[in-house]
Amino acid sequence: MVETFREVIETSFGYSLSNVSDIVIMLMGVVLILLAVVSIFALIVQIILAIKYHKYNKKQNSLNMTGENIARKILDENGLEHIKVKSSGSMLFGNSYSHFFKKVRLRRLTWKKSSVSSLAMASQKSCLAILDKENDPDMKTRIKLTPIIYFGPMAFVPLIIIGILIDILVLKSETFSVTMLLTCLGLVLYLVSFVMSIKVLKTEIKAQNKAYEVLKENNMATDEELKMLKKLFKLYNIEYVNDMIVALLELIYRILQIVAILQNNNSNN
Prior knowledge:
By secondary structure, the chain is mainly alpha-helical. It has one domain. The chain contains 10 helices and 3 strands; from the N terminus they run H-H-H-E-E-E-H-H-H-H-H-H-H. The longest helix has 46 residues. It starts with a helix and ends with a helix. The relative contact order is 0.13.
């Protein structure tokens, strides 16, 4: 088993890892298997979510209102007239709420369609703005650390490249100490991003529960529609947890890669 893992990992590295301990190779192999299993499960959830979203997006909501109008109504009734409701075709933002730009973003199909999916997305994202207004502690933390949450993982590779360039071109170092330092910094940012993702999920669930309350209290959704919303939100939550697990496994694998490289280099020296 270890030798099989070693062959697979050496192929991905592009060179021999004969000096790397069996335990590190075994751990890397196990993490790769877990990544494959979780990724397959995540793909299945994404397919089910897409089917459910499409189904509910074809079903007219009882208000006969578009996502834009639903979001506007909820925001205005909660003293948030200054929050804009905009269409978003972006894969990065999609259906979302931005504290910094003071707007609720809805995907184009959600924005202009009077469907159950529009009701779900518009109400939940508007309720994130309500949590913000109410100074919800989890929401406040999420807002403060938004740059790290979304851009922390993206900094990993650039930091390594900067470290290598400094070591080779500036310091002409053979120990690659700056590279290791910046790599550790990248891992810390990655870890902080993962931890804060839990906070993001918590606020999303709070906004979902808030949406149920708002819709029910204002007779904006039937009992059947509320059940549909719960099914849709549950799938989104499962997808989010899957993404978190994948991110954690990727972080562990990156750490093991660094350990393997260090073991290999130290043995060669």
